[in-house]
UniProtKB/TrEMBL annotation:
GO cellular component: cytosol
Domain annotation Helicase C-terminal: ranges: 381-542
Source organism per UniProt: Albugo candida
UniProt keyword Cell division, yes or no: no
Keyword Cytoplasm: no
Stored Gene3D superfamilies: P-loop containing nucleotide triphosphate hydrolases
UniProt keyword terms in alphabetical order: ATP-binding, Helicase, Hydrolase, Nucleotide-binding, RNA-binding
Top-level taxon of origin: Eukaryota
InterPro entries for the chain: DDX52/Rok1_DEADc, DEAD/DEAH_box_helicase_dom, DEAD_box_RNA_helicase, Helicase_ATP-bd, Helicase_C-like, P-loop_NTPase
Enzyme Commission number, as recorded: 3.6.4.13
Record-given protein name: RNA helicase
Catalytic activity: ATP + H2O = ADP + phosphate + H(+)
Amino acid sequence: MNSDGTRSFLKSLTHGVKLDKRQISSTKQHAPTYISRQSLQEIDQEIDFFGCDQTQNTNPVSLCAQSPAKPVHDSSQPATQTRKRKTDSENDLLPDNQSSLAHNIEVVPAFKPSITKSMTKSKKQREDEQASIALFRRQMGIRVEGAHVPNPIATFESIPADQNGQEKQFRSILLHNIEASDFKEPTAIQMQAIPSLLAGRDVLGTAPTGSGKTAAFLIPMLLRLAQTQSQSSIRSIIVVPTRELAVQIEKEVNRLTVGYGFQTVVLSKSQTETIRTNFRKETSIPIDILIATPLRLVHLIQTAKIDLCGVEMITLDEADRLFELGFIEQIDEIIASCTLRDIQRAMFSATMLQGVEEAAISVLRDPIKITVGIKNAGASSIDQKLMFVGKEEGKLVAMKQLIHTGLQIPALLFVQNKDRVNELYQELLYDGIHVGAIHADRTQEKRDQVIREFRAGEIWVLLCTDLMCRGLDFKAVNMVINYDFPQSAVSYIHRIGRTGRNGRKGFAVTFFTERDMQYVRPIANVIKLSGQDVPAWMLSLKKPSTGKRQHLLKAPPKRQRVTTVSGYDLQKAHKRKQMKKRHITRSKIASIE
């Protein structure tokens, strides 16, 4: 069956389908617990770019104190204690010499007619259906793990629909807004994540940068919110690592909900007081979607004594970043505060290391794991290049040559820290290009202004640190330049992921010096996994030790300041400065004597 035929088949399967009710296994007890730091010991390990040791946590637990869930029985099915999983042998994208992911899935038809003699499908028909769905997933690069995985959708029109009148009204508005946003058809992650979340399942989704992960969790969240009315003060929560990403998600919500009244709030300092005041009123206005960074949300929970027992859905975007040690305690407190028994949890990211994945799965119940494309690799639409520049001063020379010969604007330029952002900004300011800079030390107003100017095309080259590379969607970025070598392969993937989004062509150039040579191999592996040619000598370089990689993450290398002055001249200037200081000191001592 060809691709068009498979899509037509899937449309017929999913047209006019009722939502599946969430099935909660009676054999699993969700005892209250907290995230163990033990599960995060492997976070800093190097990504295995040529094979994955996929160990799935078969006994996930909830972080919230709650009663054991009651089993939901389907009267049309005989009661059984366990369900056998069927292995989809066709759904494997990796070559034979690479270890593959486990694809233990059982495809559940989206709708179950009453079983009569004339309507009962033959075994051959069921096998053909499953084979067609497996073929479609393989063609789209979708891999799934978990029990009772819903069928993927092929079009937005085939999104499963409920019979609720209010949800029907919003569904037509949503489809109109999707069409107005120039979304032609769902992306791979949306095809599988939307029906899975609409079925009430917990989801762990991994897909390349720019692949539509935000819409993949927003569309089902909005549809589920439209199904029912609730007087809970906060109905759903989206947790993100940066405020810039929170604002971007709010804009996406507004675009999808034009013509319908959802109450969406980005948690800020001023909004904290508003929510606190509103929560104390007897007739408080419910917040449908609260978007927040971990620190802001924890502060709200602790100071305002906000009760999150009515939260129906919680989503962690850029989940691997949120499960790092800097955020882990805050995420623990947030999840523990959401105590609704049937709460739905979802986590999405472009990269997912083994230790982080295990920690994430430990807080999900009977999750569906969705992986699109090759795990922990850059998008194939990005043309990636590694450029040797010798020493530090060679970077500025290469950068200025790039500006005059091959710079694709608008461009993002990543450097190691805020001091180097300011230094490079001063060097490029007078080279005839419109340059801007953004980092954590700038005020929120200034950061917002710079982002607006970059989106409007008033800034051609935006200088930033790794803080900015998480999740931000600049649709028109043509080029990413890694002025300073990334501290990890994960950082590299997220940096270059700012270009080549939604299938557009993008370019990424990474400078490296003699000092960076020992860390080149992991980046070269990422480029090779993306389907691009890499010089053989780069792949044969010695692999950095675990200790070196961990040290690099905690303490970035010290680099000389960004300037056109050579290193030799800088040393001479430093010597003269030291001699002048000593001369002044001797003069003071002589005058005292």
